[in-house]
Amino acid sequence: MLEKKMDETELLEQEEDTQKDRFLTFQVGNEVYGIEIKCVTEIIGIQPITEVPELPDYIKGIINLRGKIIPVMDVRLRFKKEGVDYNDRTCVIVVDIGGVPIGLIVDNVSEVLTIPEEEIVAPPDIKGGGNRYIRGIGKVENQVKLLLDCERLLNEQEIDALGNM
Amino acid sequence: MSDQFTNEPMLDMYIFETSQLIEQLEQSILSSEKESCFTPAAINEIFRIMHTIKGSSAIMMFHNISTLAHTMEDMFYFLREEKPQKVDCSSLSDFVLDGVDFIKVEVEKIKNGDEPDGDATILIENLNLFLSNLKKENEIADSGKKEKNIPKKPQQYYISQEKVPVTEYKYRFRARIYFEEGCEMENIRAYTILHNIKDYTEEFYTIPEDVIDADDSAEIIRQDGFSVYFKTNHTYEQMNEFFQQTIFLKSLELVSLETEEEYGEYKAKKRDTIRDSLVKEISSGYVSVSGKETDKVSHSSAVQNIISVSVAKLDKLMDIVGEMVIAEAMVTQNPDLQGLVLDNFQKAAGQLNKITSELQDTVMSIRMVPLSPTFQKMHRIVRDMCKQLNKEVDLKIIGEETEVDKNIIEHISDPLMHLVRNALDHGIEPSEERRQAGKDKTGTVILEAKNSGSDVLIIVQDDGKGLDREKILKKARENNLLYKKEEDMAEQEIFNMILAPGFSTKESVSEFSGRGVGMDVVNRNIETIGGTLSVNSISGKGTTITLAIPLTLAIIDGMNIKVGRSSYTIPTISIKESLRPDEKDIIIDPEGNEMLMIRGQCFPILRLHESYKVETAVTQFKEGIMIVVEQDGRTICIFADELLGQQQVVVKSLPVYIQKMRKIKGLAGCTLLGDGSISLILDVAGLVNF
Do residue B655 and residue A51 have CB atoms under 8 angstroms apart? Predict the structure, then answer.
């Protein structure tokens, strides 16, 4: 059993290795964002969304993903940008964060990039608690990609809710 | 050390099997105790269970369990063979139950991946003491017992060589087995092989011949391997396969012996020694094979009809079936087929539809399990508490065959246990007090389950002193739990205050209840599965606590309705009627609340599109439809665009993320419709309080 365990850890490590430093990039408005590939489950086209009442506007509702029901969040609205109509380039990135699946609606999905750790810098300190969702800024050639902190993207709403009250 | 060599499936099996056996054992002890004596059947059963636990624990190298089981086995061996007249049943049950508890704790440790390190020495000593006292009291000389047993056993254990074998076997084999180094307990493993080989042959000899009792047998097997000489009608391939199944098998030499001489040579040589070992075997008071084997046979046939499957797998299966139903609808209602006349296709589609719905029903029914194991557990609690609290209480169980969803069972076990404890501790008075009150000195606790619509009602009723209204009020005042004037509170409301957090009327904290965390935890647990709890009590007569639990979390009969582009599902059970109202029946009060008059009664109207802010073209009452629903005695009219139809729906909970965000009023979950779209299930209880 010990051996088996070791194998498993090794496998896990290997798997993590192939996913390390790799980011899926997507566009919301003019900015390019990236999220860690290891939390991405799949990318699907936009689906019919069932609205659920009494939720913040950025939670668009729920979708049926092959029998599994998952909530979808409009990243545009989450970032307090103007909402746009969905088109055939609109994608839903299904992510799994700590066992909680959720779909992120983004304008379009670009590519998978490797951004080594040394190319990532911490976001600048902005007064007023900005950059809540940004974990770091990745430099790729001449462009910058804003790397999202999924955990916060999902869980920051308690603060929002308090603010609303 | 031990987990280094155990493989997971085997461990799982061990845990599962042992816990089941333990439960069974508890049952038979408790029922024996009730009859105030151990029947031969019960003794046999307990003996057999202990034997199995001993064996499997030894194989899994959980020595503390196996030694304890062995001691208990000895005890029941004595009871079985000697049938002593004077047995102190209640203290015997105590000892055995202590042992059972010990094993339970150890198994729990194993389940959690910890080392089972409990020390059973005291228990074993107690048992041994008890046994020797028992022996003394019944004045049976040990030697007498041995001699009495000898004549019975030889034919059972070894087919004696003097006797002409009943069957002529075709083949002769010699098998030499080497176990993996460090697997330990080689002799027990060898014994397991011997036990299993009995399915293939009745004639066999082994080197070393005395695997269990001789101290050095493990050492011999470790060095020279374990040799079995046997005759059988099975072929070389079959026997090879049999031996290959051996756990921790390192290598196997299976040789077919050509002549009777080769076989006989061994036999002649061993003739004398076998005789010796035979006597030794018996004098040690070991298991009688005949009893064990017949038990095994009758038992296995019953067990094989049941398999245990993890709930996760069933959930997965249900998801897949759900997907299939949707996929089927997508095929049969495909827009490409619109307007085509396809007789054969329709016929085939109808067939497919029938099968899928049958499949769905079957999957659902698999998840339903009777409440009886959960109820039976309560016997033990009642027994222990009666002893501890010195009360006499009779537990009556009614309707234990009622079935509920597996998920629900898991959730109600603990709350139920708590309620029963409460009833015994707080409810039932001591015998003396009962007599003074003119009641039967034995208290009664009734545990009842019954179906009631889509709910299962579980009722815990005691005939104790009932709840003390004044005490509750006083306590509530002290803890600031009063939410309205005392005078205004109905009896029911006062009683329900015991469900509030931090409420406990018991002055002293006892081992069983009274920490003040009880009832509100029970209440919360029941609420999480969509159940409700109500308390009723008559002073001096007793308390009744009723749990209403949904039959299943998984499936309901629902009416689908449409509002704008969204669809909603209302559980059919709460729908009274649906109608299109006349203009003149609509009443609007000065505050703008709309009401509908139906047959002289007035009910508030809930505009779904307004409460849920859904865009729809239908806002005039005469264009849409009114659905009259009732829950907890309150009736409202839900206004929707149209009815879509009735169907059984699979209830899915809203995604965790949304649940965490906030509890949405009036939504019980969601479901998938035939076309793959999602419908939200309305929680009528939530809506009537909107």
Answer: no
CA-based nearest residue to B249, from B221, B214, B268: B221
Question: Using the beta-carbon criterion (under 8 Å), do A70 and B655 form an inter-chain contact?
Answer: yes
CA distance B640 to chain A (A): 15
Backbone angles phi, psi at B284, to 5 degrees: -75, 0
pLDDT category at B463 given cuts 50, 70, 90 is confident
Determine which of A62, A73, A151 to mutate to test the interface with B (most B C-beta atoms within 10 Å).
A62
Which CATH architecture does the domain made up of B311-367 adopt? Orthogonal Bundle (1.10)
Query: Is-contact B556 B454, C-beta < 8 A?
Result: yes
Delimit the domains of chain B by residue range.
Answer: 2-140, 154-302, 311-367, 370-550, 555-688
Q: Which residues of A touch B678 (CB under 8 A)?
A: 50, 62-64, 69
pLDDT bucket at B554, cuts 50 / 70 / 90: low
- Chain B residues with CB under 8 Å of A150 CB are none
Which residue in B657, B662, B672 is closest to A54 by CB distance? B662
Q: Which residues between 50 and 79 in chain A have a beta carbon less than 8 angstroms from any beta carbon of chain B?
A: 50-56, 59, 62-64, 66-71
Q: Which residues 6+ apart lie within 8 Å of B575 measured at CB? A: B559, B627, B628, B629
* Mutation target vs A (from B658, B659, B675, B679; most A CBs, 10 A cutoff): B658
* pLDDT for the residue B259: 64
Q: How many CB atoms lie under 10 A from the CB of residue B655?
A: 23
Structure confidence by residue, pLDDT tens digits, B111-154: 777 777 777 778 888 888 888 887 777 665 444 444 444 444 34
Altogether, the residues listed in chain B come to a count of 690
- Kindly determine whether residue B654 and residue A56, on different chains, have CB atoms separated by under 8 Å: no
Strand order in the sheet with B393-398: B393-398, B443-452, B455-462, B542-550, B532-538
Chain B residues whose beta carbon lies within 8 Å of the beta carbon of residue A71:
655, 657-658
Fold of the B555-688 domain: OB fold (Dihydrolipoamide Acetyltransferase, E2P) (2.40.50)
Angle at B336 between CA B331 and CA B341, to 5 degrees: 90
Continuous H helices in B177-286: 186-197, 217-224, 236-244, 260-283
A52/B658 touch (CB, cutoff 8 Å), yes or no = yes
- With an 8 Å Cβ cutoff, are B8 and A157 in contact? no
Domain with residues B2-140, CATH architecture: Up-down Bundle (1.20)
Q: What is the pLDDT of residues B579-618, one digit of tens each?
A: 888 888 888 888 888 888 888 888 999 888 888 888 888 8
Residues 6+ apart with CB under 8 A from B435: B441
CATH 3.50.50.60 for domain A23-164: no
First-to-last alpha carbon distance for chain B, in angstroms, is: 60
Helices (H) and strands (E) in chain A, counts: 4, 11
Distances in Å between the alpha carbon of A54 and those of A50, A59, B658? 13, 10, 10
Partners of residue B658 in chain A, C-beta under 8 Å: 52, 55, 59, 62, 71
Q: Which CATH architecture has domain B154-302?
A: 2-Layer Sandwich (3.30)
The contacts of residue B117 (CB under 8 Å, 6+ apart) are: B64, B109
**Hey, what CATH topology would domain B370-550 get?**
Heat Shock Protein 90 (3.30.565)
- What is the C-alpha radius of gyration for chain A, rounded to an integer number of angstroms? 17
Rounded to the nearest angstrom, the minimum Cα separation between A66 and chain B is: 6
Could you tell me the two tokens for B347?
């016929």
Structure tokens of B676?
A: 């793959």
